[in-house]
Each structure stands twice: as structure tokens, then as C-alpha cells.
């Protein structure tokens, strides 16, 4: 599991880790039942406070992405993909909202913003096609 | 390997180990000097070894006691390790005790080695004890060591060792007690010297006065006080003939005073050092901007300002010392029944102190500039090294000449001062003296720039001047038969030019301008 | 031995004043550090961080107020404090003539709980060259040697005065890792000063910001991030609502004003209630720190400020 912490970012460290683990679950890089590093190991790897990592795990357990098995460690929960998708939708909506607000303040109309999104999706499609 | 990594047995062991490492070479060096010096002085007459040892111990006691005391007082501060020592979970009395103990050992051990060596040497040579006794008698007549208790060579040696150790250790303790916690050895030394000079000045003045009014009981009390003064415990050893019955007040008082001084050192060591630490708080808050004076107009005035700041205080202090010494000597002479004029005496002390200060000031001109850290700082500024050298050279010189010149003028104007210029060809002699001082100043500057070590430079300067004088007088006496002042002036001028060239070259080399 | 002192905070500073001649450095400082916390002590150069740390070790005496370190008063019982605290001074100067192995051996008997094997392990881990003289060490090696000396007696509390100062980025990361595994992992209290905020953030549980001799904010790192936000709103509503916000800093931004506020949640509620249109910007720790130490809170809605 490769996580990347951006220091000095406006996004708090715990939110960075939560986001990245959730992303790994959605993309299938972390599969259900897979064992995660212990709090201690992850804290050491990332050079991040153990309490922060502990809180991240607790939060993800509460969200249903991870489960703690007593004496065995922390594992990816069975329904991780769907629950993380749900939480991702929420986050995505938030990010899109911010983007839309930026667009509005630039003086774009709602149609023009839709158009831009469509264009972005089109570009991604092309990229995928050339890759395959 | 593994034994080398074992921890020390106890805190005391650690502290003594540390102090031992910091003092061991000092101790060896002093021992070697103290053994070799009498061997050189005794010349062709080995029977005089104990006498020459006694004489070198006189100088040794003063120098070793005071200089080692400066390090005992301020060595830890000047290296910047005091903070670290303070942060250890041990009261600062412990390191202080270890330090004082090893400092005393450092100055006393060489005495024992030197006296022991002289004694063993005389035994090995199988001189008739009576012949040596005759030699030793001379020291009694010259009242170097006027003790009557020693019998034979062994007794003399024992007494000599005891007396020198007491004098040296006492001076060290006085210096340590008053110089403690100063930020470096020079400051500690200055304070210590002042206190010690002041104590003796008071005692001698009191003595003169008591002699004057002829009050014997007062003189007896003063002698007791004297036994507690810096170096005073030596007096006890020389009084010990009288038996313990009469000596005990001296012993008790001296012991009490020195015990107090030791306690003072132990209690103060490392305390309050925080005050002399780096300035705290933001500079912008403490210095109102209105206080910032306009910048200096030119490089020239800036360099002159810096040099006056560096040399001025030292020279002024030395001038005060010269006047004080002259006062003491006049008082002493009066007590001994001589009448000496203050003017003449002042000229003498000004010459003596002035010479020492000339050596120190010569080194001081570029003292900081060739040190790695400050050196880099200056070299990284757009400063012309030629301007730098000559402006600093002449500013230092002007400060020296101004201060000591006015002292000599004062001496000349005071009663009895005119006799100074009664000599044959006074102008020539004055010029030769002035040039000799100039040469010394330049030589010490050159040797410091070459060696970058103040003590080495000091030794080198004295050595070069002394050996140069001896060598040239031998040559002149062989070839011409007698000295002419013009010749002396000429020789000194040549040496002066050479020394200046060397100093300049060395500074340029340090500046990184060697191509 | 003393059970009551075990539940007391590791560091307790109350109403401490300290002046150097006429320069007042600390003015009524209050600070509590709970046991087991990693505590970052932030402030600008000359704010009084080093003075505070020296007071904690009894290297200086305070003018007023009370200090307890692990239940002891450092002024009365400096030796108890120093034997239970691991201390690394800012720019620590040690005996240059000693080899690194010498100074380990030298220090061992001063601390009753010194663990020499641990010292050697740390020395290896921190890549301290044992057979080199201290005067020949680089700045980073000097700091790491100081750390070995501060940690080898397994102190309950570790006080580090700007340890990251001489370390390069790689070593800083390694240093943070060491703090986390060796100290946090063993439940020890760490109190360290720094001004590299982005280094502090991932590691510290709690931070305190020192300004003009007082603590202006003490909070958990994450909570501080959630609590301090920038709110951008237009001048009219700014003038109306300004009184109800606790503002740290303000900047004109065209027709808008950007406020940096404390108590973001309450502030947002107020804005919602007043129906003022606004935008919220997350701040990083650097910006939060800047708002506290150099912020200009005196917003006067009447003056026409020239936008920068």
C-alpha cells in the first residue's frame, strides 16, 4: 500500500490518508479481506503521528471500509468498494461544487460549465482508447 | 574495542577523567620546562642545580598559578561548553571540585617533579653535601628562601617543594575565585589580576604606614593577614622555624580565607553564567530604531573605529597597571629605606608593562581576522587587504604610542623624571628604544599571522627578540669591539622592514590571495 | 514513588514572567502538557522559546509564577528534573576533544537510568561515528549525537530545542520517524520547539503558539486546522458581522474582505443566520501560524483600504 503525504497542504493529513485509502478500495487495488499495515507500521512508514493513524483507521471502520479483527489486525471490509463509492460520491460532489463555483465566478454560464465537463470526459476517453 | 565502550564507573570518575584529559599535556609541558630550565641556567656548575631550580620556581609560581587559574575560572565558558555541563543532572559543585582539584595538581605536580629531579641529580652526582650546602646558603643570603628549618639537601628540597606548592596553589585559588564565570580567560585574568594587585597594594600601603607610625602590634596583625593574601601561604612555610605555637594564627587565618575562596569558586561555578549567554528576545524590540546611528562615512574610518575598539581597552588597562605598580614600588622602597622618585619609577614600570602590552597588542591587531569563522566573514566582504593591513597596523600603533607616550611624558614631567635623559646621546637612545618597541609590535603581529596561536606567538616573539639581541651583540663585540647607537638603530630598522613584510605576506596568505 | 505526581501534567507553567534586564521576554505565560503527548512549541525567533525551555530545566530562574516539570519545581529540584528529562539544547556545544564514544561513556554515570546498550544502538541507528572527535562532526551529526545523549537514559519527558535545525530533509524525515517509533511508541512525552511548521504537523499531537511572551493558542493539531479558517465576504456584510467574529487577521480583496477567524464552526453558523454570502478557505498550518503571530485583527469597516 503506497500512500503519499503532501506536507504543508491545506488538506489535513488525516483527510489525505482517508481519501487515499478510500481511493485504493474503489479502484480495487485494496481487495476485500486484505490485511492493512498496523497503526505502528503505517505511522513509521509515513512518519506520521500514531494517534492520527489510529483515528484514520477508526474513522474508516466507522464508515464501513475497514474492519478490525481482534488480535489479528485491520482488514479491508467486504462491502468496502460500495461504501467507499458512496462516501466518494459525497466528496466528488463537494469538489464539483467548488469547481462549479469557480466557473461561475469566472462568469461562465451553467451550459458552458456542462460543456467543459463533457470535453474533459471526452479527453479521458480518448486517452483510454489509445492505451488499450 | 568493547572495553573502550564501557560506561564510566561513577560521576566522579567521569569528571576526573575529563579534567585529567584537559590538563594532562599542560602538566607534562610545565614539568618539562621546570626540569629543563634550571639545567640550562646551571651552566658548567652542576652543584647549583637546586639554586637555579629555586629561582625558576619563583617565576613559575607566579606564571603557572595565575595562568592556570584563568583556565580554571573561565575555560569552560570560553569554549561554550558550560551550558552543556549545566544541563547535566549533577550540581555544578561536582565538576567545579574536579576542575579545581586537577588544576591544583597540574601546577603542583611539576614542582615535585622538578625538585625531585634536582635532588636525585645531586645525589647521583655524589657531591659532597657540604659543598651543596654552601651553594644553598647563597639563597638564604639573597633572602630568596630565608627559611632556617631545612637541614641538608633533603630538608631544603622538601621545604622548597612545599613552599612553592603553597604559593602557586594560593595564586591559582585567588585567580579562580575571582575570575569564575567570566566569558573567557582574558576577562577572568584581567579581573583576577586587578583583585590580586589591589590586595597586595593595600597590604603594602598599610605596612608602610605602620612602619611610619612604628606600631609593632599592628605589623604583627598585618603579617597574619599577609599569610592569607594571594601567594601568602608561602610565608607560613618560612615562618615554621618558630614552631607551631607561634605559627598557628597564620595557618588558621590563611586556611579560613582560602577555604572561603574555594567555597566561593565552587558555589559560583556555572551559576549566573546564563546572564552572559547570548542575547535573548528579538533585537527589533530592544533597540529602538532611533538609536541606530548613520553609517560610517568611509572604509578608513570604519577600520580605524574597529581597531581602536579592539586595542584601546587593553592599552588603557595596562597604563593604569603601570601607574599602580610604580606606586607600589615607591612605597616599598620607602619602607626599605630608599628614596625613589615617582617619575623615574613610573618610567621603569611603563617600560616593563609597555613591552608586554606591545607584544599582546601586536598579536591583537589581527587576532580575530585569521580565526576561521570571523576570518571567513571578513574575507567575504569587499575589503581591500592592503588597506585593511596598513590601517589596522598604524591605528594599533597610534593607540599604543599615544597611551604610553603620554605616560612617559608624565614620568618626565614628574619630580625626578628629568634624570631619565641624563644619559649620553639621549635622543639616540630614545630612538633606539622606540624602534625596539616598534619591532616587537611588528614581530608579534608577524608571528601571530604565521602561527595563528596567541601563546605560540608570544613565545616566538620573546624568543626572537632575545636571541636576536644576544646574537647581534656577540657578533658586534667580536667584529667592532663596541656598540654604536647608529648601528643598533640601523639593525633594528632592517629587522623592522623584514618583519613588516612577513606580517603583510602572512595576512595576505591567510586572506587567500596567494597566487 | 509519588502517585500524585504521575497523574499531574508532564509540564505545567503558570503565570510565568521572565525578564533580562529591561527586556521582558515572558509575560504571564500559561502552558500545560499532558503525559504521553507529542507537543510542538511554536514561535518566531526571539519569541522566548529557548528561554522557556531553559526555565523548564532550571538553567534560568523565573521572576514570577510557578513551573512544575514531572511534578518537580526545576528551580528547587533541578537535579531530579534533569535526571528524568532528556534535553537537547539549541546548537549544543559539547567537548570538542572527546570522541563520540568518550562522551557516551562520560555521561553514563550521571544518569541513574542510563542504558548503555540502548545508547550504542541509537548511535548506530543515527549513524553517529563513534570513533570521531566531536570537533570534527558535521552539524547534522552533532544534532544526532545530542539526540543519542538525550534519549539513552529512557527519560519520561524529552525536551528538544529546535532539533530539526541542522538536519537536511532526508534526515528530518528519519528524525520524525525516530520520534514516532522510539518515543511516541513507548508513550513518552515529547516537548519540542520548531519553526518548520510543515514538519511539525504530521508528528505533533498538540501545538502551542508563543507570541510576545504569552501563549496565544494551544490546541490539538487537527482541531486547530478545523477551527481556524479564512472566510471571504463582501465589505457590507463584513462591516455588519465583524463584531460577532473572533478575527485573527484581515486582508482587503477588492470589494471583499478575507477574515482569518478562530472558532470557524460558530462563525459559519453566525454567517448562515445572518444570511451573508461567503466563501470558506482551508488554511495550512503555516498560514494559521502567520495569522496568530503577525495577524492584524483591528478591522475598521469605515476606512477605505487600498487593495494590494
What's this model, at a glance?
The complex is a heterotrimer of chains A (132), B (515) and C (308). Chain A is mainly alpha-helical.
Low-confidence stretches of chain A: none
Overall strand count of chain C: 13
Characterize the biggest β-sheet of chain C. Answer: 6 strands, mixed
User: Strands of the largest sheet of chain A, in order across it?
Assistant: 1-3-2
Rough outline of chain A:
elongated
The proportion of residues forming helix of chain A, as a percent range, comes to 55-70%
Taking all Cα atoms into account, the compactness measure Rg of chain A is: 18 Å
Count of helix runs of chain C: 12
Question: Could you walk me through the main structural features you see in this protein, from its secondary elements to its overall organization?
Answer:
The complex is a heterotrimer of chains A (132), B (515) and C (308). With 132 residues, chain A is mainly α. In chain A, 63% of the residues lie in helices and 8% in strands. A three-stranded antiparallel beta sheet of chain A has the order 1-3-2, with helices on one face. In chain A, strand 2 and strand 3 (73-76) form a beta hairpin. The longest helix of chain A is centred in the C-terminal third of the chain and has 26 residues, at 80-105. With 515 residues, chain B is mostly helical. The model of chain B is unreliable at 273-290 (pLDDT under 50). Chain C is of the alpha/beta class and 308 residues long. Chain C has two domains: 11-212, Rossmann fold (3-Layer(aba) Sandwich); 224-294, Alpha-Beta Plaits (2-Layer Sandwich), CATH 3.30.70. Helices cover 34% and strands 28% of the residues of chain C. Classes of the chains: A mainly alpha (132), B mainly alpha (515), C alpha/beta (308). Chains A and C meet through helix 2 and helix 3 of A and helix 7, helix 8 and helix 9 of C.
